[in-house]
Request: fold
Amino acid sequence: MQPIRNIVVLTGAGVSAESGIATFRGPGGLWEGHRVEDVCTPEALRADPRLVHRFYDLRRAALADVAPNAAHVALAELERSWTGELLIVTQNVDDLHERAGTHRLLHMHGALRSALCAVCGTRVAHTGPLPPGSRCGACGGAALRPDIVFFGEIPYAMDRIVDAIGTCDLFVSIGTSGAVYPAAGFVEWANDRGAATLELNLERSAGSGRFDESRLGPASELVPAWVAELLAGQ
Ligand code: OAD
Reply:
């Protein structure tokens, strides 16, 4: 196997679960009591903007009550200490990676503390509630919406993600069910490139069979142990 220099880490809801943020596919397949398609599609936003905005207002407000856990902290430590390339791609819309100190980070599904203008595409940092019809400071359109990549929309930064996976030696997936593409397909891209692939998840996921190795357990234990192992061998 080639020596490991370039690493891409993909994180999902499981990395924030122990901080108290609900995963998407929890009991009954509901996300905080809603079907994902009722709050996470362009059709839902058009049909019931108040519901969708309110849903994300609550998720945004809830960020004030949570803190990074040992998994976020370990990934930030990896960024500080790893001498090769590292990119963390998160599907999460919380800001716990940033708050743990991670900088080399892409939010491929958007961010709760951001608003997106549906008219001009401007993205602006946003805290507090975001009522439907809020005005964009750039174009003046009354069209600010939660900056969340809904089903059917193209995730952010795909060109940078493709490039990073195309040159990585190790791809690590943490706390994601492997149910949502394109992220669920990243492991195949890494396999095609000849990278080593590792999954860290609470339980076997839809994609487990596609990784060289799957380690099962809570992220707060598995991630610090893996980071320590990697840094010790550097
Ligand atoms: P899911 O809720 O689908 O999956 C969470 C995964 O984390 C599951 O495989 C759990 O077993 C695992 N898990 C739970 N607790 C864990 C823990 N303490 N330690 C480790 N693993 C744990 O969430 P995602 O895969 O992130 O998209 O969902 C992907 C996308 O689907 C989301 O980004 C979102 C959603 O629709 C958008 O919002 C566009």
Remarks:
- The mean pLDDT is 95.
- Strands lie at 7-11, 86-90, 105-107, 110-117, 123-125, 144-148, 170-174, 196-201, 213-216.
- The first helix runs from residue 14 to 17.
